């Protein structure tokens, strides 16, 4: 067990024990409030170039497995926990957390006061940081010189390089919703391993897409073709899709300018649905603007209200940038709002029918309150076709 440090750009340092791969790493220090789902956090491409702090005091108790990965490899810069569970107790586990991090080359640290670190980030805002063994002063220099998140197009780092077809559904974890999806959400039921035949051709633009999102689209009867982040509107339309999906992803949406231009060219030609970075890119394509939040929204317990119905949903979120509502005045309608700080969580463009949400309706991990959004997308496709 080697001594390690986490050092923030402002000089604040935390001493702990090295976790995962040996070495040094830099990234933006952020925190997530989820008590479960650490493997989904580690493999979510939206955490690219970030050092993620888990606020739950003990992590690793259910181990890891290949089935729950949200991407083929982790993209986060580093991982921070208070205590590594000494016991792995889950029948699905194939590897403990430390071995999993080592295998994927992720540098981490355990044994630090994560509550103090989280409070500092909340009070002063996210900042660049470094983790590693060796000299703490060197780590501080690394953190100070690290490139900040603003202005960085990280979608190009995590997006697929070539198009591919995705056909796997959620299998035994599939959830069905039974309500009119443009009204109040309905009840959910476990659907087992039943497979729904493909009815809709959907092109998913990959800005850092999670596998669980693709599974949810297949659950709704979509035949999904995933294309790189910079694929042109003309190339997408040549695939004759029934709808276009804009995925989640990391970084500053304003830096993903080619994608914004492509979405502008797609508006009104096909139904469009966006999640997270996809929501921000759609908003920019409609003439809006974005800005960076002080410390972002990350966790499985974020309250969001549907503006039209008043329904409150507990949602999974992971984003550091936000759409500026005032910049969209007269251009589209805000459909969802974050109840903690009043920020925009969803929009709809009445002219084209394009819509998006800032949160993650696929959850994984997290509550299933918002899974109905995928059915709303296929309903829009059906109406468009009619």
- Let me know the number of strands: 21
Distance between the termini: 64 Å
Adjacency order of strands in the biggest sheet: 10-14-13-15-16-21-20-19-17-18
What percent strand? Answer: 25-35%
- Helix proportion range: 10-25%
- Overall geometric form: globular
The overall pLDDT, averaged over residues, is 94
Low-pLDDT segments, ≥5 res = 178-195
Helix/strand-derived category reads alpha/beta
Number of helices: 10
What integer value in Å does the Rg equal?
20 Å
Task: Describe the sheet with the most strands.
Answer: 10 strands, mixed
Key descriptive features of the protein:
386 residues, globular, seven-stranded mixed barrel, ten-stranded mixed beta sheet, alpha/beta
Could you describe the 3D structure shown?
The chain is α/β, with parallel strands linked by helices. 22% of the residues lie in helices and 30% in strands. It is built from 10 helices and 21 strands. It has helices at residues 38-43, 97-103, 114-124, 136-145, 155-158, 211-219, 233-238, 257-266, 277-285, 372-385, and strands at residues 3-8, 13-20, 24-32, 50-54, 58-59, 78-80, 83-84, 107-110, 127-132, 164-166, 175-177, 188-190, 200-205, 222-227, 243-246, 272-275, 290-306, 312-323, 333-338, 344-348, 355-357. The strands form 4 sheets. The protein has a 10-stranded mixed beta sheet, sandwiched between helices. A 7-stranded mixed beta barrel has the order 1-2-8-6-4-3-9. The protein has a two-stranded parallel ribbon with strand order 5-7. Strand 15, helix 8 (257-266) and strand 16 form a beta-alpha-beta unit. Helix 8 packs across helix 9 (277-285). The termini are far apart. Mean pLDDT is 94; it is low at 178-195.
């Amino acid at each position: 067990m080697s001594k390690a440090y986490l050092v923030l750009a402002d000089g604040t340092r935390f001493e702990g024990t090295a976790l995962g791969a040996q070495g040094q790493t830099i990234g933006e220090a952020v925190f997530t409030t989820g008590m479960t789902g650490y493997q989904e956090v580690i493999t979510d491409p939206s955490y690219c170039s970030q050092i993620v702090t888990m606020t739950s005091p003990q992590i690793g108790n259910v181990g890891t497995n290949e089935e729950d990965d949200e991407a083929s490899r982790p993209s986060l810069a580093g991982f921070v926990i208070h205590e590594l569970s000494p016991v792995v107790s889950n029948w699905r586990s194939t590897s403990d957390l430390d071995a999993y991090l080592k295998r994927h080359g992720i540098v981490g640290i355990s044994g630090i006061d994560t509550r103090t670190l989280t409070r500092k980030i909340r009070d002063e805002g996210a900042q660049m940081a470094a983790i590693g063994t060796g000299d703490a002063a060197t780590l501080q220099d690394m953190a100070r010189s690290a490139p900040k998140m603003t202005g960085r197009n990280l979608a190009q780092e995590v997006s697929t390089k070539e198009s591919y077809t995705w056909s796997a559904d959620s299998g035994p974890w599939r959830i069905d919703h039974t309500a009119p999806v443009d009204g109040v959400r309905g009840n959910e039921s476990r659907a087992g391993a039943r497979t729904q035949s493909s009815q809709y051709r959907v092109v998913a633009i990959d800005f850092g897409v999670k596998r669980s999102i693709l599974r949810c689209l297949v659950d709704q009867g979509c035949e999904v073709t995933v294309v790189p982040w910079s694929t042109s509107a003309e190339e997408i339309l040549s695939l004759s899709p029934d709808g276009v999906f804009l995925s989640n992803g990391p970084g500053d949406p304003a830096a993903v300018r080619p994608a914004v231009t492509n979405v502008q060219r797609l508006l009104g030609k096909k139904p469009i649905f966006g999640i997270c970075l996809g929501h921000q890119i759609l908003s920019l394509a409609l003439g809006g603007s974005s800005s960076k939040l002080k410390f972002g929204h990350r966790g499985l317990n974020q309250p969001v209200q549907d503006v039209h119905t008043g329904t409150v949903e507990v949602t999974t979120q992971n984003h550091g940038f936000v759409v500026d509502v005032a910049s969209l005045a007269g251009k589209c309608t805000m459909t969802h709002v974050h109840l903690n700080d009043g920020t925009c969580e969803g929009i709809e463009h009445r002219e084209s029918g394009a819509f998006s949400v800032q949160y993650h309706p696929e959850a994984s991990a997290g509550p299933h309150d918002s899974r109905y959004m995928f059915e709303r997308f296929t309903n829009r496709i059906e109406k468009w076709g009619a």
